[in-house]
Amino acid sequence: MRFLLTNDDGVHAPGLASLARAASQLGEVFVVAPDTERSGSSHAITLFRPLRLREVQPGWHACDGTPTDCVYLALHHMDLKPDFVLSGVNPGPNLAHDVLYSGTVAAALEGAHWQVPSLAISHCSSKEEEIALLEPYLPGLLRKLLPVAQSTRACLNVNLPPVREGPYKGIQVAHLGHRYYSNEVIARNDPRGRMYYWIGGAKVTMPDMEGSDCNGIRDGYVTVTPLGDDLTHQGKMRDMATILRGSAL
Ligand code: MN
């Protein structure tokens, strides 16, 4: 098996190293990852400046672009022909609405978009050093989920509860829940007297939703959500068809 690994935290992130060690127990690992932190970059692609690739160790490349750029170059220029794209392990959850902001999830979706089964893996703790503690779970998790990703051709969004809260209770297939960050923006003066703004939102509320990824994580389960790149709102399609029926221009 050939694995393309990437992330949105940068090529030197501990989560990527843990994932690489786990995946190398199952097959051959190639890494193409951003050269710096690109969390929150979503599915951005770089079109109006050149991209550079730098080999930082054999089989590991750093790219000065986004996670999506990394997957795009790996598939269409470097011709790595991976059997799977693995993205992560992200230090922090990618639950509910997070998947729209996440570079980790976008990289996996990009793989699935090009028919490569893909996993985005996130640890629901912002403490990066704790990822080493969950590393022993990763080979088993991959053995279990890779065949699922392969048979469904889907992008699987995987979240792991905080490892320090005890052994995982099992794996739950979950739909995206709802998750709201406090809508704070810090506004301050910079040293030259100009205003700057910093988007915060550390406090999170998660409404109780049966079967959601948020509930699964709260209850100590590893959650898996199949994601597709078709954002069409099927319910609204029907509503709109009703509203627009018979309207003439
Ligand atoms: Mn990240």
Describe this structure in words.
With 249 residues, the protein is α/β, with parallel strands linked by helices. The chain has one domain (2-178, 208-244): 3-Layer(aba) Sandwich (Stationary-phase Survival Protein Sure Homolog, Chain: A). The protein has 8 helices and 13 strands. The strands form 3 sheets. The chain has a 9-stranded mixed sheet. Strands 9-12 form a two-stranded antiparallel ribbon. Strands 10-11 form a two-stranded antiparallel sheet. The longest helix has 15 residues, at 138-152. Manganese (II) ion is lined by residues 8-9, 39, 90, 104. Manganese (II) ion binds at residues 8-9, 39, 90, 104.
Q: In the CATH scheme, what's the topology name?
A: Stationary-phase Survival Protein Sure Homolog, Chain: A
Determine and state the CATH class: Alpha Beta
Number of domains: 1
Q: Helix segment count?
A: 8
Approximately how much helix is present in the residues? 25-40%
Number of strands: 13
* Helix-strand pattern: EHEEEHEHHEHHEEEEEEHEH
- SS-based structural class? alpha/beta
What radius of gyration results from the CA coordinates? 19 Å
Proportion of residues in β-strands: 25-35%
Q: Tell me the CATH superfamily.
A: Survival protein SurE-like phosphatase/nucleotidase
Main sheet: which strands, in order across? 3-4-2-1-5-6-7-13-8
Q: Describe the main β-sheet briefly.
A: 9 strands, mixed
Principal-axes shape call: globular
Distinct bound molecules = manganese (II) ion
Could you tell me how far the N terminus lies from the C terminus, measured between alpha carbons in angstroms? 55 Å
